[in-house]
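Quick one, tokens below. Sequence please?
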């Protein structure tokens, strides 16, 4: 064999034996902090208190259910509760449309069912000793539950939602065959129909209802959009797929003209059927992130949020596809800003002090709110919030805790009560000697918003939050979470949060 050929063969055999190059960067191991037991002692007390309260509540509900069963609570005689729950679509339909039995069937399966569930819950609150006078809200928001019924939707499967849509279609067909055109009755989502109910600690829809008639010139286009959306949603549900709100809009751009038109009708359909918006299989684009000590199956795929890279896992818009949630976290850290979230993710703060870190990158989206509500309900661990020390940080907290007016009909599945305000609080600015150059002057609009928040029910029920907000308005100073970086890039994870947790300062 020629020398060059032999050399080439030797070289090739040597290359074949060379092992595949391995990544040089290894996963950084961050272990449980040595002072974890001391730092987390008060957090664990809060967790145990929440779980005991939940167990006591479940026990009381079980006893109450037994009593309710003996007394036949859910007969047709609910008038003795002083709630006007007989003013439902079914009665209005019989009065206005004669033989529209399709609509009556829809009502009995949908909205009346949700009202009955909610009235039962409110009755239990009243029987537990809550003064009905306390139901009056503050700050100019319509309040009080006595003599009123409310509208809240319930979880439904695809088959139930399709049946609801089909019932509406039957009702429309009957009206058209009777040469009446057609008219839809829909719960009003106007601001005047938004009610804060202290017993539920969230914003809900009141009992006002509106009509949408195809024969009315002003309403005919909206009625047409509604029927088109119903048609499209039925097709989506039949295929068992999910679409985005943008997808829905582009199916009939000429009719919808603007996405706000199809988005608004989408919420109307949810309230009309009596299901959550996610049950319609229409979702918004994902926005939130989660990292830390939590794992689950997402549509059959196992997800471990400690092994999803530095940035963590995008919170999926398909919350209904999440199953078997497991966690050994002591608490959930809800972070307003993505920058602060990334600091905790990179430092693997969740391994030093076992927790779950979540952010919606500012104003919370529906998927993040629903995800937080679900894992909090299942895991029964406290939620500690880290937001900017300004009025808008508190407004973001209010959306997580009490819900938004746009989605008030679905507040039961979107709200997380009893979130603790861990920081950044106005009192922290002096407590931690934040430099003057890191403190920002509040604008006139900031001050106005702060004063308005002092009149909000979710602030007034918490004396400590009232005190903090008063400090903010008085000093006219605000600060961002990132201001803590003036003490060092890792100050927030190495000093600020551990101290906060150790002192139980929330």
């Amino acid at each position: 064999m020629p020398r060059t050929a032999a050399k080439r063969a030797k070289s090739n055999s040597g290359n074949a034996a060379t092992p595949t190059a391995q990544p040089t960067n290894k996963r950084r191991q961050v272990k449980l902090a040595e002072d974890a037991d001391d730092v987390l002692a008060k957090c664990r007390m809060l967790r145990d208190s929440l779980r005991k309260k939940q167990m006591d509540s479940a026990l009381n509900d079980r006893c109450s259910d037994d009593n309710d069963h003996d007394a036949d609570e859910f007969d047709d005689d609910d008038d003795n509760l002083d709630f006007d729950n007989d003013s439902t679509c079914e009665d209005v339909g019989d009065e206005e449309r004669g033989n529209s039995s399709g609509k009556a069937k829809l009502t009995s399966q949908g909205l009346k069912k949700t009202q009955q569930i909610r009235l039962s819950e409110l009755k239990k609150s009243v029987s537990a000793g809550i003064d009905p006078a306390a139901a009056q809200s503050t700050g100019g928001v319509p309040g009080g539950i006595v003599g009123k019924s409310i509208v809240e939707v319930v979880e439904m499967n695809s088959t139930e939602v399709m049946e609801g849509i089909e019932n509406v279609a039957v009702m429309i067909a009957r009206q058209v065959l009777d040469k009446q055109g057609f008219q839809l009755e829909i719960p009003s989502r106007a601001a005047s129909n938004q009610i804060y109910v202290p017993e539920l600690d969230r914003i809900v829809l009141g009992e006002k209802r509106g009509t949408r008639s195809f024969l009315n010139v002003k309403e005919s286009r909206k009625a047409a959009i509604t029927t088109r959306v119903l048609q499209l949603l039925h097709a989506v549900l039949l295929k068992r797929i999910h679409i985005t709100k943008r997808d829905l809009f582009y199916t009939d751009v000429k009719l919808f003209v603007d996405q706000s038109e199809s988005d608004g009708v989408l919420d109307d359909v949810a309230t009309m059927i009596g299901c959550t918006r996610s049950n319609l299989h229409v979702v918004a684009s994902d926005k939130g992130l989660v990292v830390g000590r939590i794992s689950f199956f997402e549509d059959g795929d196992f997800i471990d949020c400690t092994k999803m890279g530095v940035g963590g896992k995008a919170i999926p818009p398909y919350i209904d596809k999440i199953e078997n949630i497991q966690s050994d976290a002591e608490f959930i850290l809800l972070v307003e800003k993505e920058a602060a979230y990334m600091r905790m993710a990179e430092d693997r703060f969740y391994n030093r002090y076992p927790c779950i870190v979540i952010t919606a990158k500012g104003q919370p989206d529906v998927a993040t709110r629903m995800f937080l509500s679900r894992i909090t309900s299942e895991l029964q661990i406290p939620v500690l919030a880290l937001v900017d020390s300004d009025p808008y940080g508190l407004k973001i907290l209010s959306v997580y805790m009490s819900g938004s007016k746009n989605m008030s009909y679905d507040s039961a599945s979107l709200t997380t009560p009893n979130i603790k305000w861990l920081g950044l609080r106005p009192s922290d600015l002096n407590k931690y000697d934040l430099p003057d150059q890191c403190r920002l002057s509040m604008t006139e609009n900031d001050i106005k918003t702060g004063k308005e928040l002092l009149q909000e029910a979710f602030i007034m029920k918490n004396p400590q939050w009232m005190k903090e907000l008063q400090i903010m308005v008085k000093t006219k100073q605000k600060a961002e979470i990132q201001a803590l970086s003036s003490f060092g890039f890792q100050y927030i994870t190495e000093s600020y949060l551990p101290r906060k947790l150790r002192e139980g300062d929330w």
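The first strand starts at residue 183 and ends at 187. Residues 72-120, 122-147 have pLDDT under 50 and may be disordered.
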